[in-house]
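Narrative of accomplishments. A recurring question from our advisory board has been how the design workflow behaves on a single, concrete structure rather than in aggregate. To address it, we present the structure tokens for one chain from the evaluation set, followed by the sequence designed for it. No filtering or post-editing was applied between the two.
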């Protein structure tokens, strides 16, 4: 078991190029993160490439057992990992935040280890016989984001390792220490060279990772513009890609919904991780007949959710992770206010305070094409749009070129399913938003990316299909 102090000591930089890491809630200096260069990345890729054949040669059951040992190690150090995550990313320990994220790392490591992927018999009749096998690709390059840095890293690492690949991961520059600590804990039990981490700039280390001909698969979670750059950089090598890109998820509340019953789930669908979630509810369309009631019920929930420093146990909302994201949210809310939209709660940050705290903000009576609706805010501000005709709401929900998630809220499940079938998104939830399960495939539609993670489909995505016929 590691303590916070021992984990921090194991991952902070002691020399070379570094970057200062500050707590986004308090401004306190946590330590200095290492910043590697391209030669260090190339060395890590060579290490992973050398280790891959022996790792792939292990029986599947043995790789799975080692993944369970890695999950055990994460679990044993869970409190130390959660504290470091809270200090660096800003999310509180409690609620669906730091402790929740570390727990998800354990679950998303164990599930791929236990998910069977047997040989598939495709044809077995008088016409012939064919089997589908799934082979390792080789070295997988993973690029993880700053909003859920540990959990999304595990989404990339665990299935890749399970299928016999080795991994080189580049964490986000804003949350380097958290992922370094996670990898350090896992490497206490994994064979040397199987899991490698190279912190560095996206423009140098990240770019070189995507261009390397030795990388056989790239897994990336982040913005659509960066995803497009990865597509271009990796194209000469025809590198396989899984891209989970930006979203601006729509939710539609039907007139038969119960405002009081759905309010808390609506709130957390939008404000989980202080709104810094790709598949969070980011624009809410509510039928005119219950619009005011839904707004009022959401406001009641928002008024009673404590926001503050993550290490203070009572808080369940924290700061935005960085000044750049604070400025984006602030700009979009100010634009909405200037347009005449109504601020129900929030919208009044203390811009001179220590920490990037932006209050939970509800914006009502907003034009459906206002900036706050059309752009992904990635923060604690929810625009609520009034509609009168369902066809109008569906059209507005579908008109953007992104489609990660969506949701329908109704007391009539059959009606909700009918509306869900009309929405263009990788996932549509009924009476919830953003709930993920390690066995249910997840990914985007349109410019929210392609490829699927989780479950059997996630394992297939980090493997080479091989048909043996005859």
């Amino acid at each position: 078991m590691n303590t916070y102090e021992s984990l921090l000591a194991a991952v902070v930089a002691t020399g070379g190029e570094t970057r200062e890491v500050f707590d986004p809630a308090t401004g306190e200096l946590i330590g200095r993160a290492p910043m590697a260069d391209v030669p260090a990345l190339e060395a890590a890729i060579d290490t992973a490439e050398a280790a891959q054949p022996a790792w792939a040669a292990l029986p599947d059951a043995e790789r799975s057992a080692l993944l369970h040992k890695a999950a055990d190690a994460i679990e044993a150090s869970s409190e130390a990992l959660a504290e470091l995550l809270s200090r660096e990313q800003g999310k509180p320990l409690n609620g669906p935040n730091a402790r929740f994220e570390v727990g998800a790392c354990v679950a998303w490591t164990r599930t791929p280890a236990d998910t069977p992927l047997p040989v598939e018999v495709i044809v077995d009749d008088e016409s012939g016989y064919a089997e589908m096998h799934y082979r390792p690709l080789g070295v997988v390059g993973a690029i993880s984001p700053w909003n859920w840095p540990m959990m999304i890293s595990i989404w990339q690492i665990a299935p890749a390792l399970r299928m016999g690949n080795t991994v080189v991961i580049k964490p986000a520059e804003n949350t380097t220490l958290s992922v370094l600590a996670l990898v350090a804990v896992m490497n206490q039990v994994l064979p040397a060279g199987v899991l490698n981490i190279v912190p560095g700039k996206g423009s140098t280390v990240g770019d070189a990772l995507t261009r390397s001909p030795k990388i056989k698969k790239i897994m990336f979670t982040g913005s659509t513009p960066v995803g497009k750059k990865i597509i271009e950089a990796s194209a000469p090598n025809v590198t396989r890609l899984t891209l989970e890109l930006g979203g601006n998820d729509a939710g539609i509340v039907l007139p038969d919904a119960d405002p009081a019953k759905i309010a808390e789930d609506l709130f957390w669908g939008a404000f989980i991780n202080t709104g810094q979630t790709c598949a969070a509810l980011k624009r809410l369309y509510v039928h005119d007949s219950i619009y005011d009631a839904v707004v009022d019920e959401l406001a009641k929930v928002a008024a009673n959710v404590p926001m503050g420093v993550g290490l203070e146990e009572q808080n369940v909302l924290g700061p935005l992770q960085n000044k750049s994201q604070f400025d984006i949210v602030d700009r979009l809310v100010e634009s909405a206010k200037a347009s005449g939209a109504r601020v129900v709660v929030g919208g009044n940050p203390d811009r001179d305070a220590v920490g990037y705290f932006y209050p939970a903000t509800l914006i009502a009576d907003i034009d459906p094409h206002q900036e706050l609706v059309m752009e992904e805010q990635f923060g604690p501000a929810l625009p609520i749009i009034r509609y009168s005709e369902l066809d109008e709401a569906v059209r507005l929900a579908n008109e953007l070129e992104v489609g990660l998630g969506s949701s329908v809220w109704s007391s009539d499940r059959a009606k909700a399913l009918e509306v869900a079938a009309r929405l263009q998104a990788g996932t549509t939830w009924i009476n919830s938003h953003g709930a993920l399960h390690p066995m249910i495939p997840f990914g985007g539609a349109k410019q929210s990316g392609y490829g699927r993670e989780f479950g059997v489909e996630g394992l297939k995505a980090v493997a080479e299909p091989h048909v043996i016929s005859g």
